[in-house]
Amino acid sequence: MKKYLSDNKLIKLKINFISITMIIIFAFILLYTFKIMIIDKEKYEELLYIKTSKIYKGSEAPRGNIYDRNGILLVGNESIPIIKYTKTNLTNEEEIKLATRIAENIKIDYTKVNENMLKEYIYNTNKEELLGRITEKVKKQYENRKITNQEYKEIILDNITEEEINSLSEQEKTTAYIYYIMNLGYRYEDKMIKNKEVTEEEMKYIENEPNLYIDYIYERTYPYGDTLKNILGNVGSIQEEDLEQYLEQGYFRNDLVGTSYLEEEYESYLKGTPYTYRITSDGKRETVTEMEKGNDLYLTIDINLQVEIEKIVEEQMIKTKGEPNTTYFNKNYIIIGNAYNGSIYAFVGKMITYNGKYNFIDNSLGLITDAITPGSSIKGASHLVGYSTGAITYGQKITDGCIKIKNTDEKCSWKNLGVIDDLEALKYSSNYYQFVTAIKIGKGNYRYNAPLILDKNGFETYRKIFNGLGLGIKTGIDLPYESTGFKGNDEYVLSLLDFPIGQYDNYTPIQMFQYISTIYNNGTRVAPHLANYIKNDTETIYEYKRNVVGGVNVKEQDFLRVKEGLKMVMESGGTGYGYINLKYNPIGKTGTAQSFIDTNGDGKIDTETVSKAFVGIADEITFVVLSPNISDRKTSYTSSSNKKLSKTISNLYFEKYKKTQ
If pLDDT is split at 50, 70 and 90, which confidence band does 401 have? Predict the structure, then answer.
């Protein structure tokens, strides 16, 4: 019994302890709740507001500049004054009065004003009169909440007549448009009243208007005009299809972004960061982040070299147009760069037009998009296919001639070259040597004037190595929208004979640059590039490194053999003699191609032309000179313009610019 009482007493003690503990905990919760809800109410309301309030974008920040390799400005920024309105606690009547003053003192283009804006203006300036037009029935419906505020207002606006709208003066229409802008979008966002051509008088006027202030936007400037304009790119509004992607990256809907080429490629670096702010619970503006200018992009381009070459090209194109049979000649492409690391020093694309006088258009974009018939300039690649497949052996001699397939015309070299070996086939640019090689690769059994059957897989054999050299694929240049050139459909298998002489697949100028550079690098394919490094105000934050993007499975000794033949091309008697001074130890290959164009824009090829090409390397510097459609194919005459350009620009580079690279 005593034990039972003792246990019962212990239970009561435990219950009392738990009860007291619960009371203490509950009292603590009550006190803490009282502190949050009463004592610290304003503090936590402010924290909640800050956490949930919208972040607004301030002024657009200037983008980073773009410079050439020597720090010469290519793309800069011009600050443009604009007029902005800060919305405070002005009444509608006060805003109308302010809009009226603005219309009287600031020239505003009001042509976008519409009927709804004009009705809103009339409503705010003649509200009492308009209310007098409302029937008692409608008023009672409104008082009894049978129609909403918005519905009631729409009924009032519907009573505004066309005559009243048409009677508004230009100044009143301007006021209506300004009032609309003042109330557009989020309440606490500053509104842009005027975004261009702000005069000094207008700037002076707004000093007396506390709700107006001068801000600045930035427009791109181009000290060198249209030079490289296509490649430098443009800046514009975010496209709808890209909006979600940019918003996820922290952009604002109305931000300006790079929309093409270098501006687009390096957008994340060039983009400035606008300051942002929130509106506190007491209506004050609170800065969240400060404005930051974008980073500066330095290119590999030497603008002085670029400008000099452009001038040389323009002068030579005018001379060429004065030669016979140059009706369809209107483009030239020049690339100069470093064969080892892919740095581009000059990137020239020119188009000539005539309208009483010759005019030139920047066509640098064509360097990565225009597919050119390369002709014999790609025979170095063709020889590599021959060596790697065993179709060509070192020192292999043949007697140059023509091949004749049943029901086709003869296919010959540009002249009868006699007995030649593999190196001389390159030096003198033998087509026949390539035909014989292609027949072996295509597993054909050739007999004069007999049918010839070739293995269609021969195209793939050629393209595998051509692609490895950079022909027919994207080079990896740091520009968007690069083309892969033009690829034949391979249905007519005898076209395999045209493939190795550059009369089938077509390639872009930048692919030609990579192709000859890859041969120089013994099969290591390096991406060409225009960006050199990127800096902020204090340090280099990005530096372009040699970017190996692929290669080709060909023996090094085969590359050495091809380079020996390409060296002979540039020597006396070779087709490239005189293109680059021999003291610079050049290698290279010329090409004269049968090409075709559409002259009337109907989408059908209708005219045969001649295109000229040269690719070469001297002292680690790659030169690409392409002159598509340089002559009509009416006579045996073809212009020597391509050779003159190659000689002139290579001499200019080595005599004046080599030491600066």
Answer: very high
Cα 389 from Cα 384, distance rounded (Å): 9
Dihedral through CA 302, CA 652, CA 510, CA 557, nearest 10?
-120
First to last CA, the chain: 108
Q: Which residues, 6+ apart, have CB-to-CB distance to 422 below 8 Å?
A: 383, 386, 392, 393, 394, 395, 396, 433, 561, 565
SS3 483: coil
Q: What is the CA radius of gyration of the chain?
A: 38
Residue the block writes with tokens 């002076």: 204
Q: Which two tokens stand for residue 62?
A: 């200037």
DSSP per position, 489-547? ---SGGGGGTGGGTSSSBB-HHHHHHHHHHHHTTTEEE--BSEEEEE-SSSEEEE----
Q: Does residue 567 contact residue 587 with C-beta atoms inside 8 Å?
A: yes
Region 542-570: what's the mean pLDDT? 96
User: Which tokens in the block code for residue 43?
Assistant: 């503090």
Q: What is the mean pLDDT of residues 328-352?
A: 97
Residue 460 tokens read as: 């793939």
Distance (Å, rounded) from C-alpha 17 to C-alpha 14? 5
pLDDT at 3: 52
Q: What burial letters (b/e) apply to 146-158, b meaning 16+ CB within 10 Å?
A: ebeeeebeebbee
Query: Strand runs (DSSP E) across 191-312, as ranges?
Result: 191-194, 212-221, 235-237, 256-258, 276-279, 285-289, 296-299
How many alpha carbons fall within 13 Å on the CB side of residue 562? 31
SS (H, E, C) 357-422: CEEEEECCCHHHHCCECCHHHHHHHHHHHHHHHCCCCCCCCEECCEECECCCCCEECCCCCCEECH
* Rounded CA separation 343/567 (Å): 23
Partners of 419 in beta bridges: 399
| Least confident window among 248-252, 362-366, 418-422 | 248-252
Which DSSP state fits 449?
T
Q: CB-side exposure of 1: number of CA atoms within 13 Å?
A: 0
- And the tokens for 183? 């109330």
Q: What is the DSSP string of 572-628?
A: TTSTTTTTS-GGG--EEEEEEEEEEE-SSSSSS--EEEEEEEEEEEETTEEEEEEEE
Q: How far is CA 354 from the centre of its chain?
A: 29
Helices 170-182 and 92-105, interaxial angle, to 10°? 130
Q: How confident is the model at residue 539 (pLDDT cuts 50, 70, 90)?
A: very high
Of the candidates 435, 452, 444, the one whose C-alpha atom is nearest the C-alpha of residue 401 is 435
CA distance 595 to 609: 5
566's tokens = 């390409």
> Checking phi first, is residue 375 left (phi over 0); if not, alpha (psi -120 to 50) or beta?
left
Residue 474 class from Cβ within 10 Å (0-12 exposed, 13-18 middle, 19+ buried)? middle
Among 213, 208, 181, residue whose Cα is nearest residue 101: 208
* Distant-in-sequence contacts of 160-166, Cβ < 8 A, 24+ apart: 160/119, 160/122, 160/123, 160/130, 164/122, 165/115, 165/118, 165/119, 165/122
> Global pTM?
0.82
Please return the burial class of 432, using the count of CB atoms within 10 Å of its CB with bins 0-12, 13-18 and 19+. Answer: buried
349 vs 21 pLDDT, higher one: 349
DSSP 486: B
Helix pair angle (509-520, 379-389), 10° resolution: 50
d(CA 629, CA 597): 8
Amino acid at 349: G
For position 50, what pLDDT does the model report?
46
